[in-house]
Predict the 3D structure of the following.
Amino acid sequence: MTKLSIKEAAEIVHGKLFLPDAFSALKIKHIVTDSRTFFGDDDNLFFALKGPRNNGHEYITELQNRGIKAFVVSESEVVSGKAAFILVKDTTKALQKLAAHNRAGFHYPVVGITGSNGKTIVKEWLYELLSEEFRIVHSPKSYNSQVGVPLSVLLMENNYTLGIFEAGISQPGEMDKLAPVISPEVGILTNIGDAHQENFQSKQQKTAEKLKLFRNSKKLIFCSDDENTAGLVREFCIQYNIDPVSWSMKNRDAFACFSKTAENGTTRLKASVNGESAEFDVPFTDDSSIENVCHCFAAVWTLSKHPEKILPRFSQLAPVAMRLEIKRGINNCLLINDYYNSDLASLSIALSVLHHQAQKSHLKKVVVLSDIRQTGLPSGELYRQVNQLLEQWKVSQLIGVGKEISAHPELFSAEKKFFLSTKAFEKSFMRNDFKNSAVLIKGARTFTFEKISDLLQKKAHQTVLEINLNALINNLNVFRSRLNPATKITAMVKAFSYGSGDVEIAKLLQFQNVDYLAVAVADEGVDLRQAGVQTPVVVMNPEKHSFQNMIDFRLEPNIYSKDLMKAFEKAVAENALTAFPVHIKLDTGMNRLGFKTAEEVEEVVAFLQKTDRLKVASTFSHLAACDDPQMDAFTQQQFSRFEMLSRIITEGFPYKIIRHILNSAGIERFPEKQFEMARLGIGLYGISLTNLPLQTISTFKSIISQVKKLKPGETVGYNCRGKITSDAEIAIVPVGYADGMDRKLGNGNGEAFVKGKRVPVIGNICMDMLMLDVTGLEVQPGNEVEFFGQNISILEVAEKVGTIPYEILTGISQRVKRIYIHE
Ligand SMILES: *Cc1c(COP(=O)(O)O)cnc(C)c1O
């Protein structure tokens, strides 16, 4: 962002300035909205944003103490003489105004991307494709919200030559606010989903709202194959005098018309564009990737002077979800791989991930960094800024790879080593140089840093359960949007977070401000506390022998019997504590744990009224059949019993007591019964009863160990159950029933996804291995195999085995390594 005086900033956001003399010379260069990402520079301006669950005003005193001198606020009570304050009505709007002002100061082209799907992918791919020709500033991660868009646009500086920003909206009226912030010269409308999801009445209304981003654009790129959408776009282009740039898979009149042939995981695309033809390959075969590629192609042809030179780059595109992965490494190292692209903004984000991961496990911070290209900064200045970031995040060691970074050793203050190339690093690699460290491996794509990651990776079992943490956040937010903003959420993290690995998930949920975490037994709660989780934790099955642990680690029991209540009260008394929070379980029809009759509940209340040792934090019940519409009469009965029994409790005490009965399916089907809290389980992990737009969080996958050619008459596996009837190829994969691959999936019942195709399991599943029929696919050892994930749903696997998704998820054995992916 362009440097401003505090007075200028106040004028731009139309705020009232409170400026003690001591701060009158203050200059602003950086914007902070998250107190966790600030490090004591002089030129920061903090915007106290207000969300349904977070209020930036609460951090002002802390931030003043840590050295921030200027604040934009909307609550006048926080204004004091200890800093400069700009008082506005709405801090989010003020942030947008400042960003729009910054945007207006630059005259290089800006691309704006919106749509329901594909925004982030198209943005990242365009960045990859065009970064030789342009110096590009683009939205970090998927910063596309009312706050993310202004923060992205505030990254614009004079040294860039192209901006690429994405905008996402979830309700009418939002695009009006984002359009002036991005003000794109070239627009791209990506896929508009069919569902009337979000808060729109129709697909048409949704499209019209998204189009508002482009009112001042000169050109608009879109797919003309959906006639309704294309009609709306054409009318819009005429109304606002925009040059329409359409592409199509069938219509020769489009600006670009494509045909495609797919083979072995690669698609060859032929385009006719401007009367010329172009041919290129992409490493994808699925429809949505191809659609996103076509958007990129049209954009490259619109923006580049020599688009034909860019064609070979299309074959290098990689799936964007792979941008940042966290893995266990050798010698107690933790690896954070980010080899997708490399620039200052993404370095800064990756460093914050490194910091959080290192802090969690008390590890040293090490960064392996390649040359950073196409920033437009002179390299001395660039690496000085890199060093500043490394210092801010207290990185202890830098390993620089590349000719440019190696040319500036004097600019770096940490312990350092340099290598001219990735090859040079590989040659001198010593395993013992890396110990007890969190290692960020971040390089531009051409440096092929995956080789460095391979060296550092713990080579154990090749079979992994990959957990996409961004998808988890998405799913949490989908459920939040079904609930009132004030309704609290308990996230169920019992059974290793439904098999997904407890601590990582719990940490993330804490970061997302869920109100409670619930575990099955006390030991699971102790693990969370020892990993630094501070969110209140409820133990569903408290056992007497673990009461002392529960009290020491402040784990709150579910109280389901009088006996348990009395014993726990005694334990709290022995620790001389008062008002220890407990949760009263009511049995409204499940006939599992809990108090069932009004008399029992009255006795509980009478006991609790007489002791100050325990305090009722909440009372709850569990639904037995809310996923089944045929049982709705029963469910309604549960609701009325809950209302009757919980009233006895809430009326028994002078303080507020939270009531909750809904689980995931309950939130989907009976949101009107949300009371003050809901308990979210399977939905977080991606399973929806009513087709909510959830994302897949777990992928169970492995790697082919060996491929064999077999002749008719031969058989495969134990008991010779896999019969070969014509020339065949089989692949052996190191996944067996001991990993959680149910034996019922053998003999053609189960399938795997390999090289873009589904293939059947052949023969019986063994303890540690299984065989796939991969005839005709030309697979090789090392190829990846998915058993469930994006391509094969957990629901499908559960149906084939005759069980429910819960059992599939929690059945993946603990020896299968969990790998976390986080943007
Ligand atoms: C596991 C559990 C839940 C979560 O149920 P989902 O169907 O996974 O959402 C809610 N409440 C209780 C008491 C549970 O044990």
